[in-house]
Description:
A: alpha/beta, B: two-stranded antiparallel ribbon, 9 helices, globular
Amino acid sequence: xxxxxxxxxxxxxxxxxxxxxxxxxxxxxxxxxxxxxxxxxxxxxxxxxxxxxxxxxxxxxxxxxxxxxxxxxxxxxxxxxxxxxxxxxxxxxxxxxxxxxxxxxxxxxxxxxxxxxxxxxxxxxxxxxxxxxxxxxxxxxxxxxxxxxxxxxxxxxxxxxxxxxxxxxxxxxxxxxxxxxxxxxxxxxxxxxxxxxxxxxxxxxxxxxxxxxxxxxxxxxxxxxxxxxxxxxxxxxxxxxxxxxxxxxxxxxxxxxxxxxxxxxxxxxxxxxxxxxxxxxxxxxxxxxxxxxxxxxxxxxxxxxxxxxxxxxxxxx
Amino acid sequence: xxxxxxxxxxxxxxxxxxxxxxxxxxxxxxxxxxxxxxxxxxxxxxxxxxxxxxxxxxxxxxxxxxxxxxxxxxxxxxxxxxxxxxxxxxxxxxxxxxxxxxxxxxxxxxxxxxxxxxxxxxxxxxxxxxxxxxxxxxxxxxxxxxxxxxxxxxxxxxxxxxxxxxxxxxxxxxxxxxxxxxxxxxxxxxxxxxxxxxxxxxxxxxxxxxxxxxxxxxxxxxxxxxxxxxxxxxxxxxxxxxxxxxxxxxxxxxxxxxxxxxxxxxxxxxxxxxxxxxxxxx
Lengths: 317, 282
């Protein structure tokens, strides 16, 4: 499906022209000179646009409908994947997918939020907003990973926890809290990658790790810019201002120095233009960090994770 | 010419002397709307004598209520928040911090320290809603974490009394991370076999509920406290439905299995003492 963000549109116009030229090119008429010129122009424009994105534009990019979702990463990075379902209490949550697979030949567990691309799938995936069952399923899979001594990879991409009556009744606060406590104590490596929207508690519930990585155009925040604007500006349409104030981009968070370990680069134009290339960049980064973590014993893994959290403290004493 | 004529002069309102009442002598109960003599409420541990509504109280009042007289030693009293993002919404965060310090007489939204309950040593952290709505930034997260770590060191129970709107947006991602940090500290307490009691008071919402407040070995709530993750307004806007009666109140959470018990303020101390003695085998 074709979908373009406002700031991508000048690029799209150029590309359409390029495609037309390519189509008209025959053996008799040679447009190769023009095509080459236009290609260079498009490349330059893309570089210009993507090096000057505002925080609000980056938020749009992180939510891009064609952005690779968890199952896209699974397809390109892992082999032998099988999905498992349900929290053994209430139901299965399609907004948070869990399963087992091989990474670089080695068995592992994979957990991640899943959004949909068309309307039907979006509704089925609840727009990537988990219910309590989702977190409880994720915890079940993490504890199984511990049982079998497998590393856990999580992919974070959610607007946040689902604000519904049922979610409250079934204790979403307790489900998130329990995950935070249990993930801190897990005896196997956990590598978290924020791939799109890192939205609040719904994201954090699967994001306590030995390593926390963020893709270049991902965002991560305590509240969505719109939610923040509704509370602090008393106006939900002031998302742009709130996004600036929240400093929610990968680059901003890297600067804090204590929350994420690495920013994973994306192909020029964003991960959505080339899923395979984007997944390959993620794979390389995951491999590096997993190799480092393999050197640690279960106790050292827990201690490293604890000290990482302990360092997330900017205060005046 | 008019059909009717006023023969009498209109009645002039009698000049009455307004009774001047000094501020704060009377308080209106927000639940039953009764006007009550403030001293009477105070004598009743800030509980409405007519309808049992529990007024919000400060961290210091809470300490006086549950700990033995004079047993509390505060730690990290001078710890303050930092505006590391230079956050600005109409007002700069640094100015908000200074204003809150001035208004509340506290340095942030939590006090923590050591004390005793019926001579049993405990570590406590008390929220104060009057400091920026009890919101959790790095200072609150650090204090709760240190409280749990101190309980581990002293091998004694840890108690947290929550009253908070949730994470402090002005600290963005770092405030979210406090949820993970505090929960991690509690996992160590659990492994060491030490009791942790979470007391949820009005209101406890957002990131505080979705971390240490829901993780108590015993989750205890004050009557009719608002307790939830998403705020009621957000839910109403999302699902476009009226919320059920009593939604997200203590009684509702008890019914849905999220809290162990509802305890009235006057019975709070003796109940805590009873529970802790069972868990500490004393």
